[in-house]
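FORM 12-B: Structure-to-Sequence Request
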């Protein structure tokens, strides 16, 4: 036991490290909808449970079951040396005991998976509630949230009781078997004593071995449901990351020009009607193109497909003539810089958040990107300047400041293709125009796709593509569309005060 404990001291922490490392890459590579479709706390709870459950499983199997199995075998041999009938009784009982435990444990596994799901859901609701506590207070819905929380707790309670009930059923069957085993053994002892087949020493040894065997096999059988329970917890966590992964072929991707071609694309989200239908669009190298349309027209979907966040249903996307499916997503995304509408920031310094765009960039390059996007103006007055911690999700910054940080990060990446997805929606029109003027020289040799809802965002673009229900309904420069396209005129009118 001490040898096992010493080995566990060295191996179990390494085991946890290995498991976390093995989970890290699949989680980072997971497709967007597969992680955001559930509560963040739910996902975090399931994933954090995997190393703990694996360690418990390993401890049960390696530290306990092996020792007990060896001890059980020795005891059966000793019983057989006394009288073979005692060994037969013990062996039959052990086999029945373990067989019933394994059979019932499959039900324990299902209930354990269900319980793990309810625990993860409860944790997810707690995280979601605290994340949105300001909204709860603003709308004074504390009572409503308390009721939702109580419902989740009751669901977890019922699942826990059901899981425990399955285990208790196994224990009841084992207790009945143990009683039958003791009665059979006692009968054999009485018969042997009556017919002078046993010595006093045998009469003392057999009950002692039987009671020890009863305790060890009983403990062993109780661990079988625990094994399946831990397996259920592991399965519940692995379901999150066990879905499809984008193929990584490792082929190089050369984008000397930046030409983009969408050819007859058809795509739909799971259980939804098609978002893009037979969609085709050609974007010449270094062109500045604007994409406009009502919500749900397919603008953001187009960008997600270009970045391979979703697999195509039909059609191809090519960059400078090369199919993006022939390269790994990482290689593809190195060639594209994106500024989303909702910029996500780390709980790190302002410098680290900008530097994240290119970790090999020098400090001078970081400061230059900050100056181009106007970040330098609000960073310098801060007490710690660029080394100021911005808090979780950048809560200490305004929406416009966060978008400027996102722009600086994309500029620092210096990719041949840039995508602005409502990247200046939090800025006023005057500030937006000033920012566009500073960005213009930097964007001269790059292909730029700008997704927008207001006309001011589309001022610098050379060409505008209008989307409606997943198809192109207009394509041309702004002046031509304003004169000849009624749909674009309606969209432009919405933007007027």
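FORM 12-B RESPONSE
SEQUENCE OUT:
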């Amino acid at each position: 036991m001490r040898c096992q404990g010493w080995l566990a001291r060295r191996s179990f922490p390494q085991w946890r490290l290995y498991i976390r490392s093995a989970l890290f890459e699949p989680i980072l590579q997971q497709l967007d909808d597969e992680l955001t479709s559930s509560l963040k706390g739910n996902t975090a709870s399931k994933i954090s449970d995997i190393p703990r459950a694996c360690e418990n499983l390993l401890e049960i199997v390696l530290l306990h079951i092996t020792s007990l199995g060896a001890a059980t075998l020795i005891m059966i041999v000793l019983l057989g040396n006394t009288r073979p009938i005692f060994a037969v009784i013990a062996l039959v009982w052990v086999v029945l005991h373990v067989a019933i435990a394994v059979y019932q444990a499959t039900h324990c596994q299902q209930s354990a998976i269900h319980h793990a799901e309810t625990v993860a859901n409860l944790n997810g609701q707690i995280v979601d509630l605290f994340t949105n506590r300001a909204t709860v207070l603003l709308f004074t819905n504390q009572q409503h949230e308390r009721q939702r929380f109580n419902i989740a707790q009751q669901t977890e309670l019922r699942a826990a009781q059901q899981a425990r009930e399955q285990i208790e059923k196994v224990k009841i069957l084992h207790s009945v078997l143990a009683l039958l085993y003791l009665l059979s053994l006692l009968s054999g002892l009485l018969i042997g004593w009556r017919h002078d087949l046993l010595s006093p020493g045998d009469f003392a040894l057999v009950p002692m071995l039987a009671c020890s065997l009863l305790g060890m096999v009983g403990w062993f059988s109780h661990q079988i449901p625990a094994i399946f329970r831990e397996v259920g917890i592991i399965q519940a966590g692995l379901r999150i990351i066990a879905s499809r992964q984008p193929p990584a072929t490792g082929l190089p991707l050369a984008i000397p020009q930046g030409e983009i071609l969408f050819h007859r694309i058809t795509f739909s989200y799971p259980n939804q009607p098609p978002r893009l239908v037979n969609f085709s669009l050609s974007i010449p190298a270094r062109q500045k193109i604007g994409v406009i349309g009502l919500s749900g027209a397919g603008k953001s979907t187009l960008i997600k497909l270009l970045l391979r966040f979703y697999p195509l249903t039909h059609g191809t996307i090519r960059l400078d003539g090369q199919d993006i499916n022939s390269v790994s997503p990482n290689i593809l995304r190195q060639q594209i810089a994106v500024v989303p509408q909702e910029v996500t920031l780390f709980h790190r310094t302002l410098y680290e958040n900008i530097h994240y765009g290119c970790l090999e960039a020098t400090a001078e390059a970081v400061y230059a990107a900050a100056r181009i996007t106007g970040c330098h103006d609000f960073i310098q007055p801060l007490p710690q300047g660029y080394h100021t911690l911005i808090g979780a999700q950048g809560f200490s910054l305004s929406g416009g400041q966060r978008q400027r940080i996102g722009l600086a990060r994309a500029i620092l990446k210096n990719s041949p293709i840039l995508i602005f997805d409502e990247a200046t929606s939090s800025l006023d029109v005057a500030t937006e125009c000033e920012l566009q003027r500073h960005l213009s020289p930097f964007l001269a040799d790059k292909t730029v796709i700008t997704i927008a809802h207001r006309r001011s965002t589309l001022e610098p673009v050379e060409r505008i593509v209008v989307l409606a229900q997943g198809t192109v309904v207009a394509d041309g420069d702004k002046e031509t569309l304003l004169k000849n396209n009624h749909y674009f005129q309606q969209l432009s009118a919405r933007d007027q005060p």
